[in-house]
Amino acid sequence: MLKLELRPQLSRFWSYGSPILALLITVVIGVILFAALGKDPVRGLQVFFWEPIKSSYAIGELLVKATPLLVIALGLAVCFRSNVWNIGAEGQFVLGAIAAGGMALLADKNTGPWIVPAILVAGVLGGMLWAAIVAWLRDVCNANEILTSLMLVYVATLLLLWLVGGPWKDPMGYNFPQTKTFEAVTQIPRLMKGSRVTIGIVIALVGVAALWVFLFRTRLGFAQQVGGLAPAAARYAGFSARRAVWIALLTSGGAAGLAGALEVAGPIGQLTPYVPAGYGFAAIIVAFVGRLHPVGMVFSAILMSMFYIGGELAQSRLGLPKSLTAVFQGLLLFTLLACDTLVAYRVRMKAAARPVSPTAGMSSLQASTPDVVAPQIKEA
């Protein structure tokens, strides 16, 4: 039999090996899933893991998807390392998109290129404003940030639907709930001609370096992490728990808002009801698969964007539902949670108990009381 035995200390090997094992298990389950749906498993894996990287254009589309995932995950890493559970990054993403879209709608043909930085700043402020509501409720009312941040996602989505179907609706849009297409001057600059990859990927990589410096080379970053790991020690050291909550939520909200601005002023080019693409929720998986480390999240963001593109290709080429993307995301998360058990526990073989035979028991009894028991057995 197998049993779990507590390790004397956490396994460094499985801290990094657990996500790889989780991915392998996800692939195996995916093969079984494709076979159960009557599809060629090899073709299914090819759609998810080869098609997104087989050409320069495909890699560009992969980076387009990975950019918002990475930017949001960087902010969430600050939250989770501070033991602040911001589950509403999707709402902050939407508010950042709304604020950035509002700024873009102010532009006309005479507007200068200064509008692009203004759009990005508006997105950051929009996300921070939405996260500030969560921080205020946690700080003043002691409300659970998991619930408040999650509920505000629906408020943000409904606000977006009201704006694109009402005040900001394009009068020339054939009654579709969307804003007009933003002016060309508002578009986030692209890295190369013929590709949709924008400078957003550069901003994301700069954010990776900035987060690494903040977490591992600054006193403030150290205070954030100590507050998450040992609140009592943080209080003893004089670190403010209230400040840690505000910094964590405002940072994550600003990052999510920035991702929203990069999305609506980049690949989308307008506000539509389809702005909420689930990036805020998927970024939670990106953060944990990347072990809340800036470099690790780069690779996990690319992996998650493969799932997004693979789901779209599976719909068009294999006739499978697009929701297969969410299935793979969920499988990766649950297998990761299961594999993380190996970080604190090791698997051991438990020896089965041997049954005691009646003869062995009688011999023991005779040995213990030879003068009394032995004659009785003999007479019998």
Structure, explained:
This protein is mostly helical and 380 residues long. Helices cover 69% and strands 3% of the residues. It contains 16 helices and two strands. The chain has helices at residues 12-36, 41-49, 56-81, 89-105, 115-140, 145-165, 200-217, 219-229, 231-236, 241-268, 279-289, 294-317, 324-339, 341-344, 358-368, 370-379; strands at residues 2-6, 345-349. A two-stranded antiparallel sheet has the order 1-2. The radius of gyration is 28 Å and the shape is globular.
Short synopsis of the structure:
The protein is mostly helical and 380 residues long. Helices cover 69% and strands 3% of the residues.
Count of runs of 4 or more consecutive helical residues: 16
Quick one: overall form?
Answer: globular
Proportion in β-strands: under 5%
**Poorly predicted regions:** 363-380
Q: Overall mean pLDDT score?
A: 90
Enumerate the strands of the largest sheet in spatial order, edge to edge or round the barrel.
Answer: 1-2
Give the helix level as a range of percent: 55-70%
* Structural class by helix and strand composition: mainly alpha
The radius of gyration is 28 Å
Number of strands: 2
> Kindly, what is the distance between the CA atoms of the first and last residues, rounded to a whole number of angstroms?
42 Å
